[in-house]
Amino acid sequence: MDVGWVYTVQESMHAYVANVYTSVTEQLTRDKRGRFISVEQEFFRLWWDTVRRLVKEGRLEFVLGGQVMHDEAVTDLDDQILQMTEGHGFLYETFGVRPRFSWHVDPFGASATTPVLFALAGFNAHLVSRVDYDLKDRLQEHKGLQFVWRGSPSLPDQQQEIFTHVMDQFSYCSPSDLSFSNSSGFYWNGVVVFPDPPEDGVYPNMSLPVTKETVHAYAQTMVDNIKQRGAWFRTNHVLWPWGCDKQFYNASVQFKNMDPLMEYINQHSQELGVTVQYATLSEYFHAVHQSGLSWDVRGSEDFLPYSTESHQAWTGFYASRNVLKGLARRASARLRVAETLFARYVVSFPGEGPVAKDQALAKLRALRWAVSEVQHHDGITGTESPKVAEMYAQHLRQAVEEVEEVVAALLLQLLPRHEFRSPHNDHHLGSDLHGDGANEGAEQHLIVYNPLAWNVTAVVNVNVTFPMATVFDDEGQPVAAQIQRSPQSAVTYDLFFVVTLGGLQHREYLVRLSGTPCGEGTSCRATYAAAEGVRFERRGLRFRKQESGRRLFPVLNDCYTLMFDQDTNLLHSITDRVDKRTVAMSQDFWEYWANGDIKAGPISDNYIFTAVGPAVRAYRAVRMEIVPGRVVTEVRQYFYREEGDEDHAFSITTRVPASFAGGPPCHALEQSYALGPLRINTEVVLRTSTDLSTGRTLFTDDNGYQMMERPHRDFVNNTVARNFYPMVRAAYIQDQRSRLVLLSDRAHGVSSQASGQLEVMLHRRLWNNLPWNRGYNLTLNDSSVVRPAMWLTMSSLSSRSSRLHLRGAIELNNRPLVVPIDRPKRSRPGRERDLGAGVVPVRPVVLPPNLHLLSFSVPGWNYSSQHDRHLLHLDSGVRPEPDYGRILVRIMHLFEEGEDPELSKPVSVDLKEVLSGVGEVRAVEERSLTGTWDIDTLDRWRWNKHTGPEDEGRGGGPTEEFTVTISPKEIRTFFVYFRTDNTRENPKRTRREHEEDASVDASSFKQLDDAFPDKMSSKREREQKRKLQHFLTDLASLGSLQGFRYFQPWLRGREELLLTVVNEDPEVNCTLFLLAGYAKYGRPYAWIRSNHERLVSIGGVDSMVKDTPLKLKSITDWQTQEVRIWDVVNELVCLCTTPSPSNPFALDMRYVQTLPLPERFLATGALLNFLEAYVVHGNKDELHYDRVVEEVKPLRRLHVQSLLEWQKSRVGAELLNPPTMHHSFSLKPCLASTASITT
């Protein structure tokens, strides 16, 4: 059962999945001989009632147990662990079971990371299926389909090895083509019907039932297949999988035919030579283990890439749906930010705090599940249909949006308790900003957070609408910055500035914006105003015929000198200034052409890459622009398909960090690319060509865990495609002296088709006429524009920086997060004492450079760490509250054994000391990878091997002094408990003080808390409280708006909104309503305040009573649905106007346009904010939804036009006079929309 692929989760649940679990449970309850295995837990989360007894009896067995059966080629290590942890935690919390065996039959190839993770999770054996067809043939021939697999060359044997079973050529399905029956074979329940199951229960293509007439033919076919398979294995136990995709949705029909068939075989076992029985995977592996045989060992190798035949290399999916791959990686990074902040918060506020823990945890879990879901082998791979891809993307976007609210709330509460030292109060900074102050725009406060446990110095980038900005840190000191025009917009600017942060530390920065530009190429205070840039003439390919390399333009820092050829506008060479070696290098775009007609030859599709021929250049001309700077220098290259094209098809933007005291490291060159829409049946690669002598060997990472050597291999057919490998985080080539590394922000396919060359496949757009692909809409007609990013480094092999690629990839994917905030409206209690006493920043959490804090989170499970106690709770029906005091910590050693003289050594860490920046550690428990096992009680099976004695392992559990030793490539998992009295501030501080400290007045939310006490509230009450908080926020947002055609709102207090609706009756031109969300009632209500008689019919007779709430559908639906303020307004407007307007939110543009310029700028910004919120969150099925979307367009134009007029007229002082409104309506949206874009 696939979580996605062609059909959405909801469609699959409706069509067959629910029937799978229901009918399987029914059948297993009826017959104790029955057995079944279930793999992916997302569907099971939606259905699991009445199964505990079957699980406890061992007749319903969970294998693998992850949220999904994840892909192994393009998934990231963090996300693999996450989805397994979520699935295992759910199973253990719910049933007290912990999976011991894997069922990984459908991922398209097998990674060497998998045996390591599965062993660390406590598995005894592992089952796979999809390995290269020619390798499977050889394994079958030599009875080598079962072996002991060691994924890492550095880890001790017993710590990582796992017995592995490879399914034979029949894979994980039983035969389906039977001459005497039909194509459903041994599947008597037929073929699934979408979208609705057949009402009569009769599915198409149901096989002939087992009867006296057919039983022998079925039995003989089954026995023949068992014997054929048995010849490929060493024991007399044969695993015969009875099932396949979308089966057992009508289990009673299946078992009704399986039972007599098996009974017949066993009755004739002497004649047939076979006995059969139902078995789970654990029963099968137990029988194999008991055989006592010794097994071959396969060490530190993977099974990638995967091919099903010579012309079907499954390497295309490495780059399919690039946008989804990028979205999934960004969502994972945002989850890490939220997890680490929430963990610090629950330690700082162990009791009742200003951020509701249950609500925050619920939003975190939603994002955990969304990130886990997309790791499915038909999700992150891009092999699903377009509607399923959109389902994944929608789940990710929605969950990220909710978590970003949590992040902002947590950061506000975790800010250091001091007054921001404004430069206004510093005599060094107060008086001589450029200009006399009248042209200053405004100030914006930013929080910048480092989610890694390393100290970092980095350049962040925010987008602003002012030509000048000065940045100050939280000590009031100026920060090195650079501002320049944005290449994406004529009215915005890119502001780069340098941040220095400790591990898991956040700091506050102030951006002072000014309407007066600094002179181009000059500095105003610490900010450098970059010039327009040097533009180079567009050059066509005909210039290549001339001698190149005569006119070179240098761009350099302390690490590199890059030479760009002015005759080609391409990179010419790069010089390692430390090693003093120059390497010839060029970068450009090439494309492979694909065949779309199955009659003309092999095709490319979502899965498969089959090139018609060698790659050809994807462009005919190149234009270049170089913008020099003192923080970064940008090199922009634009590639045109034809010399005369107006618009470019591809681009590369290279940012070269400047070298200066306190600046970022200079060795990483950030490159961002833009491609698309592509032409049909083209697959575009970025080709980096050098004169390094590499022999076509490259190195790629397995899931970000370890690097794998990939020598080039020659094949009779399809050599190009079969030499592509997945690049999840990193790839490099090297010769005997230098190493060239590319680090990526998402998965790609990568190859080295020539010596010194790296090709990274960035985008694919395909169409073919294969009926199967067209039927399921799997042709990959992806017309999107993709914008991936990579870091490029080059260094000597003897340099330590050449071995920091895995750390660099982590830093690329987890860059500092920028969050714009409103400045607090009043000083926090006690702040006056801090003024002038210096800043006390958040204490950092810093690990040694070769260790990585893989996880720091609050799982929120309610199970006891003691297994016996947890089972007692389950048996007694006791369900403890979520444990917020249990912090899940994972630490990983990044280096291989012997990779570096120093960094490859084992490292001893005192967890109490390292985590002291969070709180005082009182206890540490070492756990299995997914947290469900106490490491001291985890006893995995040992398998006999054809090798010498085992390496038992290194390191050890935490001592009384909390010290642990992490050896090369180890991942150690711990539960850490902090002292609950170790709060970060005065524990007597009340919750009201916390709420008043926030950037919005939260006193009405305090009343909500009084109405719903946390300790007494039910889950439903907590949900109602959350919804009412949203409703109050909506009231505040709508109450300040002016300019609607059909209604006018006025905010009256914190809980009330007066709404005047314009009527169609000219004699009674308006009706007044009161909308309120009183905390004491715990829900919203609406009252009519004028013209009662006109609207008597809408609420019955009771509505004529002034103090009786109206019986509105939207208010009634609020109890069970997500109803927002615009739903209520829409209903009231439609009730008061006949006919109902096509757009109840239509604007009175004449009124808006007549407003004075400053008011017009603010009003359009506020209206835009409201309408865009409706576009994002409103009901797209409403008839007026498209009209609202259209209304946004002219409003946005007017807003931008007002901004331009304001800039031209330089009336900045008019924007400074209103107290704080311009922060809400202008600056904050401008900064927040791009604040997370960093370098």
TrEMBL record:
UniProt cofactor note: Binds 1 zinc ion per subunit.
Key words of the record: Glycosidase, Hydrolase, Metal-binding, Zinc
Keyword Glycosyltransferase among record annotations: no
Catalytic EC class: hydrolase
EC number: 3.2.1.-
Hydrolase found in the keyword field: yes
GO terms classed as biological process: mannose metabolic process
A matching Pfam family: Alpha-mann_mid
GO cellular component: lysosome
Domain of life of the native organism: Eukaryota
Cofactor(s) essential for the protein: Zn(2+)
SUPFAM superfamilies per record: Families 57/38 glycoside transferase middle domain, Galactose mutarotase-like, Glycoside hydrolase/deacetylase
Gene3D superfamilies, per the entry: 2.60.40.1360, Glycoside hydrolase 38, N terminal domain, Glycoside hydrolase family 38, central domain, Golgi alpha-mannosidase II, Golgi alpha-mannosidase II, domain 4
Domain Glycoside hydrolase family 38 central intervals: 312-396
GO molecular function, one term: metal ion binding
Matching PANTHER family: ALPHA-MANNOSIDASE, EPIDIDYMIS-SPECIFIC ALPHA-MANNOSIDASE
Family, similarity comment: Belongs to the glycosyl hydrolase 38 family.
Protein name: Alpha-mannosidase
